[in-house]
Amino acid sequence: MDCIGITANRGKNGASGFLKRFVPALEERGVSVVLDEDAGAHFSGGRVVPFREMVAAADMVVVLGGDGTMLHSVHRMLPDLKPVIGVNVGTLGFLTFSTGDDPEETAEALVAGDYAISERRLLDGVVRRDGVEKAHFQALNEVTLKHENVARMISVEASVRGDVLNRYHADGLIVATPTGSTAYSMSAGGPVVSPRSEVIVITPICPHALSNRAVVVGDDETINLCGKGGEDGDTLVLAVDGHARIPITNADVLEVRLAENPLPLVMRSDRSFYETLRLKLRWHGSNV
């Protein structure tokens, strides 16, 4: 490894203390470091360049912040995905390699190759109107379809491989990756899925039917979503990883599938997904 790039959440005060120890620890081990402007705001004296230039120069990209900062950074990297290392300067997140408590240990692990690469599939989707592509997006966690008026329900027909799955009357509908199964989808009652499972999860949010449950479909399936019913001019809103908001009308068809190119996510080699799950969700078994 010749070069590590670093980006950071400007609002995380703990990033400054981490970088003051992390950057020298990497350089002492013969690794050059390049920071983007956000990381440079926390650390003076390093080489600071624009974000995309930092990504192009780096063999790996360290992201200082929480899972939200990781999602934001991945979207900024698209379509050129480099291996990403998450360092949570608070507590351990599902997507992070370590916390900011021991920068030297993190530097030593990266230089020594003491880590594992978890290939995380993204969602790839398009919005079409009359057969013409209106928008294209990719998501690491999920896409969420809701009414623009949050007090109203949506009516959406979901099809898989051209076969109608269900017409959902709900507060919203989530389409999630295995990585996203521990995020919004889990909060809405969806299953927790191993990141090694190449599947897509469809989870309704507060459906108006007790029989509506989350559905898991295969990695080669294409999901089509289209608005049904409601008033003329009704507009739904598609949120991509909680950020980009794309307006959807009854004339639009949303197509979602798994993207071809995965995100190489750097994870600890001594901690499995299941251990992280147990620690993060504080599963301790029954007291009975």
Automatic annotation (TrEMBL):
The cofactors named for this UniProt entry are: a divalent metal cation
What GO MF terms are annotated?
Answer: ATP binding; metal ion binding; NAD binding; NAD+ kinase activity
Cell location:
Cytoplasm
Recorded E.C. number(s)? 2.7.1.23
The catalysed reaction is: NAD(+) + ATP = ADP + NADP(+) + H(+)
Locate the residues binding NAD(+): D67, G68, H72, N141, E142, R152, H169, D171, T182, A183, Y184, S185, M186, S187
Alphabetically, which GO biological process terms does the record hold?
NAD+ metabolic process; NADP+ biosynthetic process
Q: Where is the active site?
A: D67
Q: What Gene Ontology cellular component terms go with this record?
A: cytoplasm
Matching entries from Pfam families are given as: NAD_kinase, NAD_kinase_C
Q: Which UniProt keywords apply?
A: ATP-binding, Cytoplasm, Kinase, NAD, NADP, Nucleotide-binding, Transferase
Primary enzyme class: transferase
Q: Which residues form a coiled coil?
A: none
- Tagged with keyword Coiled coil: no
> Of which family is this protein a member?
Belongs to the NAD kinase family.
Q: What does this protein do?
A: Involved in the regulation of the intracellular balance of NAD and NADP, and is a key enzyme in the biosynthesis of NADP. Catalyzes specifically the phosphorylation on 2'-hydroxyl of the adenosine moiety of NAD to yield NADP.
What is the recorded name of this protein?
Answer: NAD kinase
Gene this protein is translated from: nadK
